[in-house]
Design brief:
Largest sheet: 6 strands, mixed
Mean pLDDT: 83
Number of domains: 2
Structural class: alpha+beta
Strand content: 15-25%
Distance between the termini: 43 Å
Strand order of the largest sheet: 4-5-2-1-7-8
Number of strands: 9
Number of helices: 9
């Protein structure tokens, strides 16, 4: 029974997704003069949280640093941005920087130091390694690979779209073309956005992503013989068209943290490979679970389970769409 086990997986997935944060934090440290630095700390905030407390994260700088002047804090869509200045005797290169409170989240924080002279230094802080050393040379490129995997796995709106697409695809051969079309589409717009060729505002993009889930959920709620011609015969077209929009959504994380100087193409390719790996994991998991269920005694409940799955997915996506549209209007 294809949809019943997917429904159980969906409950777990949405519960985890709402319990954790998926967008990274970003600290940009710009050396303005010798041993003096301008700090921009972009902290993600939980969706639908009205306070300005963000996630309760606090950057910890080495003891040779002291704050200069006042702090400036502003709230942006999905982020809390704090700007201030530091004076660090002896400089920051080679020093350790930490993030207090990161252990309580699954949010990554990228740190980038732009010195007056020499190469940019950067590092990635995680819940497992909340302290790192600014050693120069930039963050290892493999970090962008893992960032792609994590962004897909913990990007619950993207996952719901992939799950519903998988469920309305009736054969492995067609599923191959659906996955290929989605990958090609989001790769195009991801590259265009990150390279600055074509960018869209994040608010309408997020609303259309929610709409894409609603669209496929409606198709999933119908018996196969009553679905639209495109959903029944060419679901790869749905994957491609909406995949273009999802690509702009994927680009948000890279636009937040920036790309390593001189290695933009490599980082972009690795991030995209990570997205593809996460996508194939979700498709394989849903396919294996539903195939096993189809061979079990639970197969007789497939119609009811499919309808319940479509109802829950559609309700969640409709809520997202309404709240995102309301945010645009307001």
């Amino acid at each position: 029974m294809r949809s019943l086990f997917s429904l159980l997986f969906l409950f777990l997935l949405v519960g985890v997704a709402h319990a954790h944060e998926v967008r990274p934090g970003y600290i940009e440290i710009t050396e303005t003069s010798e041993n003096n630095y301008a700090i921009s700390w972009k902290q993600p905030v939980r969706e639908n949280v009205d306070s300005v407390s963000g996630l309760g994260l606090r950057p910890v700088f080495p003891t040779n640093c002291k704050h200069i002047g006042a702090r400036d804090m502003v709230r942006r869509t999905g982020a809390l941005i704090e700007q201030f200045f530091l004076e660090c005797e002896g400089g920051l290169l080679g020093q350790q920087i930490g993030m207090d409170g990161l252990q309580r989240t699954i949010t990554d924080v990228f740190v980038r130091l732009i010195p007056l002279q020499g190469e940019t230094a950067s590092l990635r802080l995680t819940a497992e390694t909340p302290i790192g050393r600014l050693s120069g040379g930039g963050a290892p490129l493999q970090e962008y690979l893992m960032l792609g995997v994590e962004h897909l796995i913990f990007g619950y709106d993207h996952i719901l779209f992939i799950i519903t697409l998988t469920l309305i695809t009736v054969s492995l051969r067609r599923l191959f073309w659906v996955v290929t079309a989605f990958t090609l589409a989001h790769s195009i717009t991801l590259a265009l956005s990150v390279l600055g060729i074509l960018r869209l505002s994040s608010a309408p993009v997020e609303a259309i992503i929610a709409l894409s889930i609603v669209f496929v959920a409606v198709e999933l709620s119908l018996p196969p013989q009553k679905r639209s011609y495109v959903a029944s015969n060419h679901p790869q077209l749905i994957a491609f068209v909406f995949g273009l929009i999802h690509g702009f959504g994927f680009s948000g994380v890279l636009l937040d943290i920036g790309m390593p100087r001189g290695e933009t193409a490599q980082a972009l390719v690795l991030f995209n490979i990570g997205l593809e790996a996460g996508q194939l994991f979700v498709v394989a998991l849903v396919s294996l679970v539903t195939a096993a269920a189809a061979r079990s005694s639970l197969n007789q409940y497939s119609v009811q389970a499919r309808s319940i799955t479509a109802l829950i997915v559609g309700a969640i996506a409709s809520y997202w769409m309404i709240t995102r549209l309301a945010a645009i209007i307001s």
